[in-house]
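Internal ticket - ligand job 140, uridine-5'-diphosphate:
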Amino acid sequence: MNVTNRTFTMIKPDATSAGHTGAILDKIIKAGFRIVAMKYTRLTPEEAGRFYAIHRERPFYNDLIKYMSSGNIVAAILEKDNAVDDFRKLIGATDPAKAEPGTIRNLFAKSIDANAVHGSDSNENAAIEGAFFFSALEMH
Ligand code: UDP
Ligand code: MG
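stdout (structure tokens):
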């Protein structure tokens, strides 16, 4: 399948520590995404800073790095037709208070910062973010 049909996700520390990992993966799989690669790990502050470098100038950057390195995450590459847009729909708005009912953030997120999951915002960023965690040999 063409790489533009892939997206990248992380289940964030608030969701893994609250025990939502299985329920979130279940929703992702039932929505028709195939797991291409998956890793249970933890980011150092330096790694979280590099991953979110695009947000360096935003006021929440330092808190975001602290939060994203505060516990375990699940990183995964997902595959489906229209993966980037369909996954953004499945997770809902950044602020869970504004996320549609039934979306992953509506169901599982605690707040706008601890919002349960990451989803790439473009095909280009999906490829960059996937390559941050996985080598080409791990992407099947
Ligand atoms: N974030 C935050 N405060 C904000 C906006 C974003 O803490 O006002 C965090 C939140 O964890 C979000 C991440 O920064 O998921 C990246 O922000 P972005 O605007 O890219 O939101 P997303 O693409 O994750 O919906
Ligand atoms: Mg984003």
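Auto-summary: The pocket of uridine-5'-diphosphate (ligand 1) is lined by residues 55, 60, 64, 94, 112-113, 115, 118, 121 (CB under 6 Å). The mean pLDDT is 97.
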